[in-house]
């Protein structure tokens, strides 16, 4: 995944992100290259992105604009939002000071390791 500027819409990176999903090994046979479905919020609600996902064999589950909350997507998105909030607990990740992408990605990896370690410590 590539880093983008601060005030860019997330939807601009949807297709590059989908294309970079690695193969997932598991059951005997050819590894899966894509998900069955993609869950997204209202920011991705556009026919263009729905068509792009269907063309790749991915069922879009996208909240629609103008429809009240309660679609049930929040149950699954909460995990992602919580993890992003944990990453924002690290000042260097909340405000990006590094000019080089590789340094920022290294701090992102370090933050992910620390969060995982703390989570595992609570489970043990």
Task: Walk me through the structure.
This protein folds into two domains: 1-69, no CATH class; 72-124. It has helices at residues 14-19, 47-55, 73-87, 91-94, 101-123; strands at residues 37-40, 59-62. The chain is 46% helix and 6% strand. It has a two-stranded parallel sheet. The chain contains five helices and two strands; from the N terminus they run H-E-H-E-H-H-H. By secondary structure, it is mostly helical. The mean pLDDT is 78. Helix 2 links the parallel strand 1 (37-40) and strand 2.
How many distinct folded domains?
2
Secondary-structure content class: mainly alpha
Quickly count the helices: 5
Please give the alpha-carbon distance between the first and last residues: 32 Å
Unreliable runs: none
| Shape by Cα distribution | globular
The gyration radius over C-alpha positions equals 17 Å
Please provide the count of β strands.
2
Mean pLDDT: 78
Task: Summarize the SSE layout with pairings.
Blueprint: H1 14-19, E1 37-40, H2 47-55, E2 59-62, H3 73-87, H4 91-94, H5 101-123
Parallel strand pairs: 1-2
Quick recap:
The protein has 124 residues and is mostly helical. Helices cover 46% and strands 6% of the residues.
List the main descriptive attributes of the protein structure presented here.
globular, mainly alpha, two-stranded parallel ribbon, 2 strands, 2 domains, 124 residues
């Amino acid at each position: 995944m590539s880093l983008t500027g601060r005030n860019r819409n997330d939807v601009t990176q949807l297709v590059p992100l989908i294309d970079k999903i690695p193969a997932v090994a598991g059951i005997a046979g050819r590894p899966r290259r894509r998900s069955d479905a993609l869950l997204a919020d209202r920011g991705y609600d556009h026919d263009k992105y729905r068509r792009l996902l269907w063309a790749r064999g991915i069922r879009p589950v996208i909240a629609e604009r103008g429809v009240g909350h309660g679609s049930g997507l929040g149950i699954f998105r909460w995990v992602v939002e919580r993890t992003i909030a944990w990453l924002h607990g690290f000042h260097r990740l909340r405000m990006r000071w590094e000019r080089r992408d590789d340094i920022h990605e290294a701090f992102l990896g370090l933050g992910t390791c620390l969060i995982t370690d703390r989570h595992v410590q609570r489970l043990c």
